[in-house]
Amino acid sequence: MTASRRTFASDNWSGIHPSVLAAIVAANDGGDHVPSYGADPVTTEATRLFRRHFGDDAQVFFAFNGTGANVVGLQSLLRPFEAVICADTAHINVDECGAPERHLGSKLIAVPTPDGKLTPALAEAAAVGTGDEHHVQPRVVSITQSTEVGTCYRVEEVEALGRWAHNHGMWLHLDGARLSNAAASLGVGLGAFGADAGVDVLSFGATKNGAMGAEAVVSFRSDEESSLRYIRKQSMQLASKMRFVSAQFAALLSDDLWRTNAAHANGMARRLADGVAVIDGVDVAYPVEANAVFASIPPEVTEALQERYPFYVWDEAAHVVRWMTSFDTTEQDVDDFVAAVDKLTGSHPSPSG
Amino acid sequence: MTASRRTFASDNWSGIHPSVLAAIVAANDGGDHVPSYGADPVTTEATRLFRRHFGDDAQVFFAFNGTGANVVGLQSLLRPFEAVICADTAHINVDECGAPERHLGSKLIAVPTPDGKLTPALAEAAAVGTGDEHHVQPRVVSITQSTEVGTCYRVEEVEALGRWAHNHGMWLHLDGARLSNAAASLGVGLGAFGADAGVDVLSFGATKNGAMGAEAVVSFRSDEESSLRYIRKQSMQLASKMRFVSAQFAALLSDDLWRTNAAHANGMARRLADGVAVIDGVDVAYPVEANAVFASIPPEVTEALQERYPFYVWDEAAHVVRWMTSFDTTEQDVDDFVAAVDKLTGSHPSPSG
Amino acid sequence: MTASRRTFASDNWSGIHPSVLAAIVAANDGGDHVPSYGADPVTTEATRLFRRHFGDDAQVFFAFNGTGANVVGLQSLLRPFEAVICADTAHINVDECGAPERHLGSKLIAVPTPDGKLTPALAEAAAVGTGDEHHVQPRVVSITQSTEVGTCYRVEEVEALGRWAHNHGMWLHLDGARLSNAAASLGVGLGAFGADAGVDVLSFGATKNGAMGAEAVVSFRSDEESSLRYIRKQSMQLASKMRFVSAQFAALLSDDLWRTNAAHANGMARRLADGVAVIDGVDVAYPVEANAVFASIPPEVTEALQERYPFYVWDEAAHVVRWMTSFDTTEQDVDDFVAAVDKLTGSHPSPSG
Amino acid sequence: MTASRRTFASDNWSGIHPSVLAAIVAANDGGDHVPSYGADPVTTEATRLFRRHFGDDAQVFFAFNGTGANVVGLQSLLRPFEAVICADTAHINVDECGAPERHLGSKLIAVPTPDGKLTPALAEAAAVGTGDEHHVQPRVVSITQSTEVGTCYRVEEVEALGRWAHNHGMWLHLDGARLSNAAASLGVGLGAFGADAGVDVLSFGATKNGAMGAEAVVSFRSDEESSLRYIRKQSMQLASKMRFVSAQFAALLSDDLWRTNAAHANGMARRLADGVAVIDGVDVAYPVEANAVFASIPPEVTEALQERYPFYVWDEAAHVVRWMTSFDTTEQDVDDFVAAVDKLTGSHPSPSG
Predict the structure, then answer these.
(1) Are A202 and A266 found together in one domain?
(2) pLDDT given at position A352
(3) Which pLDDT does position B340 carry in this prediction?
(4) The whole model's pTM is what?
(5) Is residue C353 part of a domain?
């Protein structure tokens, strides 16, 4: 087979959505000098759009990448002897090369979950040692929305975690690298996962939803409390020509492009999951609620399929693979892929077949 | 006065050079998915271009901003009990919100200099306490090229520092946020400030020379020795859609756009310095060897001038201000500015005038 | 009941063994000034004694406490993007208030074990992500000897872990807060758990074996490689009047006092375990191989027993408690305690009894 | 010459004062088990004695060494993007192997002073960049009492710094490794340098005043605000057999032994300074206000003198040496030393002599 133009490897294998690129180009128009580090009109406008979603008290700090946004946001919430409770599948726990431990100095308390989602009961069980100086002090609950296994927290599930955290003197952090996908999937606004739900700080990701590279830390505490300005700068996440980061957000948050892109990607995942669900030998592993499909397939199918369609193996032992869709995935892409899975699986019938 | 379209505040107030923007657009063309995190053809090409300048042994790691590139590069050279000798004016010492101390865990030994430039003699005097466990161990000499005060190290000056460092079991780091300006000013290639000059790791900046946001760490040690891949990721400086960072470098390093842009900016600074040098009450403070002009002017002139042309005061007490030129500064911009300085200074004659 | 003079709470509730105290007093005799920071004859002698056990290549660095010794030793072995594989029960993982993450910047990969002991197979399963920049790089295997649940690694078990670690480009670290107890239990010398067994760095604890407060980092790498001198000082673990730390080691390592004390404590744990094993309602939870007994007992017994004999609950949910013996625990102490357990348990018969 | 039994190298070359050693021995008497980590009667008593000096609101945390006490105390006052203003001669700046930068993550802003003492004017000049995210934010003024050059802050000088710090939203930290010497010299109580003087956190050193190894962090903020319990533990400064640290403080703070020892050491320095002041070729470099004498002497005298009396050269270039006295320095020691200086200096007349 020849390689496909579009893959199911990751939503960060996509390029830039045309409207986002146009916004970057427009921000460069005219050649005027503008103040650096965010004191420019594009950043002001992008911030205004964020506040339309998250409320006027939202403090917004743009950053370069998801790891940066997570570390910066978390750092505003805790000190090194305090700990973060998260799912063991959390991006901060497994995919950031230890950046959280390194930069926070804090321990992550990683909790196994059936579906990538924390619950108050799981957090409660993990929050041990409070008041004991020999033990790290649980201080932040961090959740990912949508989760790393493609599931979504319902609004009331986030609210329950917010209440639990606040009742225990803790903060709720949300890694929203794919928050748009969750909001689109649940049919709610982005603000549904802000202060109203009890979230104290969140990372909002644009990169995986059609941007070139743009992430934001949204905090519902005052600047003075959070000191996020200084934390961002010291954490090497302050862009000098900020307007070109801001323009990406402005494009996505205008005309609900964020939702259009995310809903499309979600729909493609749904279509993919529906397509493979009926294939013998393929078992979808988690509820498909965002833009990811996890499935167990025969390992020899994986190998043959990857020649044409790069994607990642999620769990080597269990033969579970991950297929991500993106804003630019087409129905044809999905249908071709499903057909390829079908063909390859059929040519490798199970012994009992 | 009305505000000028172009200012002398900083070279990061400029936008994107058209060729750089075109390269970003081109990298998005077609909509193909490409591997993230640098395993893409654009990054391969940009790396090839770097090696044309710095040699085949150069290891190149793209990063988001200058602070990130400096911290990542330095981190590959030292451990927390080891120290960095730098000029007290160094960007790492005064303009990065303590990021080096924070992320390296190391002390910066800041040395006063007459012109922003370290020398072996200055480094020697600062390198005390070797072998004494109570004292940080000097391990890296870090220089900025061109310096924060707009001067340039001659090639042989860098070589002398390289020899001194290596003779003392130390490394030489170069913060090249404006390396292009220095190379253009001295009429040499970028590679003149690489391994041949004894530099072990350098930051190469594109942002201030017409890019949107692109910096690189160039190391002359093997990957295995430097571990820069892991350091970059853990330091939150790894871009997922890397090709759009790489494309910026590819544009600047092709057809010597880096030199054209830098030489132009340098020329505008020269023109500006020449223009103000003859004005009574204006004293140029440092040799103008790159794209910065420092001058002492009457404080009331500063205030009036800033209304139309934003720029920064460098030394409040000494009334020294900084004027930066950029790739997009025009002769008209400079001449208008000089005329404004002349007019404002003339209207504020010194008591003895 | 009235409180007992001796408890089973922890071996650090004991005071100082008379010979250790005598050595401290002797080190003060005469009132001569001696060089600080370890350049004194007592430290020289203590180091000589360590080398008699661990070989002439052993580099010895005295430290204040176990957390300090562990963090200092580990820091000589890895960089922040590298990780430590340890048992989830490891002291470094649960009892040091996150000091390892804080000071190493590294992730601990905590592995569940049936008996507190890692194996090559467990390490192998945990050592994932090698070569992947998104993932921390496993670099050190850290084991505790004797373990936190009172079991001991056989010499060949340590050797197997050393071989596995070295074959995978990793180091083997040993937390020997109770190494004396393990060596005494297994009837081997302390050196059996040094370089010959493949251990690269170990913490050797004296405090829990009759000292006042004295721990050592023993490294089998050269000073130049490990830089432990600087790491210790920067880690706030360098004593100025070092001779009084050293004297404690000199006392314990002369005349095999370390073994006498440890063997006695082990014997008392054995006696205690044997005593309670026959009591209905008491189940000893782990093999009793050092100076700790873990047992599940009815929660109401725990409460009543703690009034007279302070001790810690190990696992609230499983009603497992921990009883530690010490160098100064007497047979009478143990017999009285067993009698108390017997009496209290008898008065709380199980429903089926 | 043969080596002297007592030297002028450092007050940490002395042993333990008999009363301190007796207190350690007494704390071990009886062999009872007592709770570890400070929940013991000796620690309670030592804390009570501290509060008699520093007031009932003083929170007291014992630590192992001065570096530890300084880092722990400072850590309770600032975050990594915040900076510490200190004299360039400060122990935290030059003698702790970079531990403050390493563990605080913060920059030290080191200020040259004529006499080792900061003033509000010096602090004011150093406190730049407030509100600028590119710059570290000054947050703590740290002073050493008595200073590293043997001078003392008057009470009103400390008060002035406290007022200045608090008026600028900053804290005042005091490194009191030799606070006893200062209080004895000025004829005031220890509490004169506590909350009443505007000090927020101080390190109180016992080691250099006759203890074996005992330092304390005294904070005037509530436990909840400072979190010092957790900071101390995570910083590896929590002793398990705490009572033996506490006993040293109890001994020094009872019967004013702290003052007796310090006053004696101060008197010996005075005697030494008076003795050498009349010797040609010897110039005392700083006011002798505590237990240190700094003097410039001919370098050949230094060398000959060190053969018998070890001491440190303070400033190689200026031929300035440091002579420390201690609680156990005798008049005879001083007189013999002065005679030796006299003799050696006389035998090396200056060319013009």
Answers:
(1) no
(2) 47
(3) 96
(4) 0.96
(5) no
Residue C168, both tokens? 């995978």
Sequence-distant (6+) residues with CB within 8 A of D8 are D272, D293, D309, D310, D311, D323, D324, D325, D329, D337
- Of B81, B230, B232, Cβ closest to residue C231: B81
At C1, the pLDDT band (50, 70, 90 cuts) reads very low
Asked if residue D181 is part of any domain, the answer here is yes
A351's CB contacts (< 8 A; 6+ apart) are: none
CB contact under 8 A, A230 and D37: no
Please give the interface size between A and D, counted as residue pairs whose CB atoms are below 8 Å apart. Answer: 33
Tokens of B123: 């480094």
Q: Is residue B348 part of a domain?
A: no
Chain D residues close to A38, C-beta within 8 Å:
none
Q: Which of B255, B270, B303 is the last residue of a domain?
A: B255
Interface of A to D at Cβ within 8 Å reads 37, 79-81, 133-134, 137, 227, 229-234, 238
Q: Which residue has the tokens 């409770």?
A: A85
Residue of D nearest to B102 (CA): D105
Residue B164 · residue B120 · CB < 8 Å? yes
Based on the domain organization, do D158 and D220 belong to the same domain?
Answer: yes
Give the total number of structural domains in chain A.
2
Domain at A317, CATH number = 3.90.1150.10
Q: What is the ipTM of this complex?
A: 0.96
pLDDT for the residue numbered D5: 83
Could B94 and D133 be called an inter-chain contact, meaning their C-beta atoms sit closer than 8 Å? no
A36: number of Cβ within 10 Å = 21
Structural domain of D315: 258-342
Sheet of D312-315, strand order: D283-284, D292-296, D320-324, D312-315
Of B102, B244, B326, the CB nearest to A212: B244
Report how far residue B92's alpha carbon sits from residue B89's, in angstroms, rounded to the nearest whole number: 8
Q: Say yes or no for a CB contact (<8 Å) between C137 and B230.
A: yes
One domain for residues A143 and A196: yes
**CATH code, domain with D153:** 3.40.640.10
Q: Residues D252-305: pLDDT tens digits?
A: 999 999 999 999 999 999 999 999 999 999 999 999 999 999 999 999 999 999
Evaluated on CA atoms C160, C103, A169, A162, the torsion sign reads negative
Confidence band for C2, pLDDT divided at 50, 70 and 90: low
Does residue D183 sit in the same domain as residue D232? yes
Helix (H) or strand (E) holding D84: strand D82-87
Residues of chain A with pLDDT under 70: 1-4, 347-353
Q: Minimal Cα distance from B232: which residue of C?
A: C133
Task: Check if the beta carbon of residue A254 is closer than 8 Å to that of residue A98.
Answer: no
Q: Is the pLDDT of residue D120 over 50?
A: yes
First to last CA, chain A: 26
CA distance B208 to B210: 6
**Residue that terminates a domain, selected from A237, A255, A273:** A255
A269 inside domain: yes
* Secondary structure class of C110 (helix, strand, coil): strand
Strand pairing partners for B174? B143, B202
Per-position DSSP letters for D134-158, written without gaps between them: TS-EEEEEEEESS-TTS----HHHH
Do D250 and D274 lie in one domain? The reply is no
Same domain, A92 and A224: yes
Q: Which of A98, A134, A135 sits opposite C136 (nearest CB)?
A: A98
pLDDT band at residue D16 using 50, 70 and 90 as cut-offs: very high
Q: What is the pLDDT of residues D22-72, one digit of tens each?
A: 999 999 998 899 999 999 999 999 999 999 999 999 999 999 999 999 999
User: Apex CA C36: angle with CA C34 and CA C39, to 5°?
Assistant: 80
Give the angle subtended at the CA of D28 by the CAs of D24 and D33, to the nearest 5°. 140
Verify that A77 and A193 share a domain, yes or no: yes
Q: Verify that D142 and D247 share a domain, yes or no.
A: yes
